[in-house]
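ok so heres the complex, two chains, lmk if somethin looks off
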Amino acid sequence: MTAPLRIGIAGLGTVGAGVLRILQAQGDLIAARAGRPIEAVAVSARDRAKDRGVPLDAHAWEADPVALARRPDIDVFVEVMGGHEGAAKAATEAALAAGHDVVTANKAMLAHHGQALALAAEEAGRVLRFEAAVAGGIPVIKALTEGLAGNRMTRVMGVMNGTCNYILTRMEEAGLPYAEVFEEARQLGYLEADPRLDVDGIDAGHKLSLLAAIAFGTQVAFDHVELEGIGSVTIEDIRRAADMGFKIKLLGVAQMTGRGLEQRMRPCLVPATSPLGQLQGGTNMVVLEGDSVGQVVLRGAGAGAGPTASAVLSDLIDIARGNRVPTFGQPAATLARARPAKGAVPAPHYLRLRLVDKPGALAKVARVLGDSGISIDRMRQYGHEEGSAPVLIVTHKTTRAALDEALAALPETGVVEGAPVAIRIEAV
Amino acid sequence: MTAPLRIGIAGLGTVGAGVLRILQAQGDLIAARAGRPIEAVAVSARDRAKDRGVPLDAHAWEADPVALARRPDIDVFVEVMGGHEGAAKAATEAALAAGHDVVTANKAMLAHHGQALALAAEEAGRVLRFEAAVAGGIPVIKALTEGLAGNRMTRVMGVMNGTCNYILTRMEEAGLPYAEVFEEARQLGYLEADPRLDVDGIDAGHKLSLLAAIAFGTQVAFDHVELEGIGSVTIEDIRRAADMGFKIKLLGVAQMTGRGLEQRMRPCLVPATSPLGQLQGGTNMVVLEGDSVGQVVLRGAGAGAGPTASAVLSDLIDIARGNRVPTFGQPAATLARARPAKGAVPAPHYLRLRLVDKPGALAKVARVLGDSGISIDRMRQYGHEEGSAPVLIVTHKTTRAALDEALAALPETGVVEGAPVAIRIEAV
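and the predicted structre for the whole thing:
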């Protein structure tokens, strides 16, 4: 058994305390696997007195995370403070400059500064690992960076914000509108302090941008992730989609196309019987598609002390074992600058509109769609309610541009009431 | 870019040819990720003249795999010949003795000789990796050995023989009996040359024993895997189970209990709505459960040239990157000898029997079950057909011993026709 791997943990919230708890409870098991003990030498957090359910006496205390990051008696700096600017970034940079490896759970920091930090790590001859930043306990960074490294990846997808999936599932099950379930989730403590990070898809978008960088060998480009949150998803669409055999998910999709890199995080319809469609509640799912392997699906807890700490431990054990993989799977200097694709690859779409009760109304709608080159796969008209009837249309593959053209032309028909809803159907 | 990683491939069947094809097609991508090119220096197979759809001119030819394994100009010996004795084992041993790392897809060899080979590898200071041996393209060895290394694993489960899952799925969908679907599968080329490897659960049992060794830090103990194949699964049970909300799967389960290590590979009922229950056709699924991470589910292609070659490449890229993990996640000498548990942990069971048309018949059955301490969760009696009625019972948790006691006593009631069927229901 060689010398212990000495770590300093900045941030003793759920994740940091979880890591300490595991190290204390299963130190022997981890040492047997890692080939050496992993020892938390020092810790840092805002409030020293707070009871975290785990004793801190054995660890040196640093009030300042940057001071912790610079301590000469640590090998690895574990950044689990959160926040993409300020202390987390400063401490990460300080740790790398001091010659320490870094393990972080900070998707926001990496989504904004991943390329610069990866370069800094490599210049310092250090590794920067982040399994805990994406999909909690699911070892998806490892699966993609190492397990599928022999593949040219064709697409990565995921439901990676458990809160959003909880809200959508709960809306469907309880038949409650978005605003009500949002409030419920807030009271249950499921939402970030700034809930827009969850419901606007920002947090999930951060994660998608990290997966895309690894999958396609491109520099992280969170700014180019097309973001749309779940705030506009209605209970009516959830129900109508179910009628047609679909579920609505906040789905992230990244794929490399001839027109550039597509990164989308937005509500999509997926077949109800697909693994993504069957995903209920707060669970996460990531789908990785490669030219040789086909489709690999990973499912597990996307958040929580245990799962996230499990991911941090995986990175630490890697480092203890001497496994040193570049941050995004290849040297940061070799990552290409991704050209963002304009518009998404064609896909079927779900259309919902209200048709007024006039002869030939449906024909007019069909004609507008046809004029934009959109053909109809399935259509369903429901009974009239107060002079208009809900109509659901599943189109064949179409571009969003063609669809937007049709949507713009529909009011001119005089037979459509209100604004139609259009949602992409992702083939999964 | 440092010196290439030089490999020798023994076996040019589906997998070996698949590896060559990927190296030829995406050499640059792999070199970028691995930090160095991976170069197939020499190959070996039975028939040099056979057309494998991939050019062999650039590789030296060895008629004898052992000679290939000993070549001083290779770094890694890739064993994809198959067969657990004879040439595969001799060549693997020769490669380790010659100071080469080994990558193998050979579950049978590792199930029988894993401990000895892991020891030999470590004595030689070499690694022996086998991602391709379990669940094809799903990076499950990596997920378990590295991704979840911070967890005390509590249970691992899997549907890991695609052919068996295909047969069971097809029986249900087409309403065909086992023998007929077995014959279909044979004609489609889905079965091993010796089909017992598939349908008797041997192949899947090999895989389970490897997962168990990693999960619980024990020496591979394939001999202690409780094996039961799918040959006795009837279309009637598939349908009746579906009526009660279950699917029948050839499910492997390994778990460490106070009474020792349980390893079972046998037909089980799982809830139809669970990820395992929803698994159709030839796809594989592995469920990993750890104390911190909870449940992680992995799904993908369990066989085929592309997926299996993808797994071999993952091991090769690991070696090229300098990632060197012990075969079963910790030094082989530290693996404990597993004490096999006698009997499985209690579980609910599905019982199907035929009740003769006599007053009080059901009460007599209930009494026999009650006398063995078995309580009934759900019961369903169908209409009488020719003097007897099918009865389905879902029990509460019971041991198999109690159940066997009840099954032995049932004939004495005089109200049960023929032999009852009892199948374990695994909580997933």
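quick notes: Chain A touches chain B through 60 residues (CB under 8 Å). thats all i got rn
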